[in-house]
C-alpha cells in the first residue's frame, strides 16, 4: 500500500520528468520525427533515444522490445532510467549514428510499407549505422547509467557528465571517451 506522501513524491517526480521531456521536445532536431520527419512527435523510443510520430511509434512496436522500447511522451509514466537514456541521446545524436551512411539525397518514405521497410533497415539490419560511433555511444550511455543511477545519484536527471559527453560526441567526428 502506498502512503499519501509516497504518492505525492511520485507525482512530483512525474511532473519533473514531464518538464524535462517538454524541454527536450523544444530542441530543433526533436521537433520532427526521427524516422519520417513528421512535425511534432509525441512518442519516443527511450532505449534507442529518439522522438517519434505516432505512425513510426507503431512500427517501432512491431520491431519488438529487444530493439525498441516505445512510450508516449505524456500519456505514459516514465522512470528515471528512461529519462536519463533519452536525455543523453535524442534525434540529433541518433541520426548521426543510425543514419551515418544514408545518402544526403535520400527521401524519407511516406507510405506505411516503405516506412516500415526503412525503419527495419535502419534499426534492425543497421544498414546505415556507423558501428564505431554506435560502440562509443553505448560506452558513454553505460557509464552515464552507472554514474547517474547507481553510485552518484546526486547527479540525478540533470547529469552534467552526460551533457558534456553528448556535446563532445556531437562535435567530434571520432569521439574518444576518456574515463
Ligand atoms: Zn514518423
Automatic annotation (TrEMBL):
Pfam families: ArfGap. CDD domains: ArfGap_SMAP. The keyword Cell membrane does not apply. One of its GO terms (molecular function) is GTPase activator activity. It comes from the Eukaryota. Keywords: GTPase activation, Membrane, Metal-binding, Transmembrane, Transmembrane helix, Zinc, Zinc-finger. The chain crosses the membrane at residues 137-155. The keyword Lipoprotein does not apply. Residues 18-136 form the Arf-GAP domain. GO terms for cellular component: cytoplasm. This is Stromal membrane-associated protein 2. The lineage of its organism: Eukaryota, Metazoa, Echinodermata, Eleutherozoa, Echinozoa.
Amino acid at each position: 500500500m502506498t502512503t499519501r506522501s509516497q504518492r505525492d513524491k511520485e507525482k512530483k517526480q512525474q511532473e519533473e520528468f514531464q518538464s524535462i521531456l517538454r524541454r527536450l521536445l523544444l530542441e530543433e532536431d526533436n521537433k520532427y520525427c526521427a524516422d519520417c520527419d513528421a512535425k511534432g512527435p509525441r512518442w519516443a523510443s527511450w532505449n534507442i533515444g529518439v522522438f517519434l510520430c505516432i505512425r513510426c511509434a507503431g512500427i517501432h512496436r512491431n520491431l519488438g522490445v529487444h530493439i525498441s522500447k516505445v512510450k508516449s511522451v505524456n500519456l505514459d509514466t516514465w522512470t528515471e532510467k528512461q529519462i536519463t537514456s533519452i536525455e543523453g541521446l535524442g534525434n540529433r545524436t541518433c541520426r548521426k549514428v543510425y543514419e551515418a551512411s544514408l545518402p544526403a539525397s535520400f527521401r524519407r518514405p511516406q507510405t506505411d510499407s516503405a516506412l516500415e521497410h526503412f525503419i527495419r533497415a535502419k534499426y534492425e539490419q543497421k544498414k546505415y549505422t556507423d558501428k564505431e560511433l554506435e560502440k562509443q555511444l553505448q560506452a558513454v550511455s553505460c557509464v552515464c547509467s552507472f554514474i547517474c543511477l547507481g553510485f552518484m545519484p546526486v547527479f540525478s536527471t540533470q547529469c552534467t557528465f552526460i551533457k558534456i559527453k553528448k556535446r563532445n560526441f556531437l562535435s567530434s567526428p571520432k569521439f574518444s571517451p576518456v574515463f
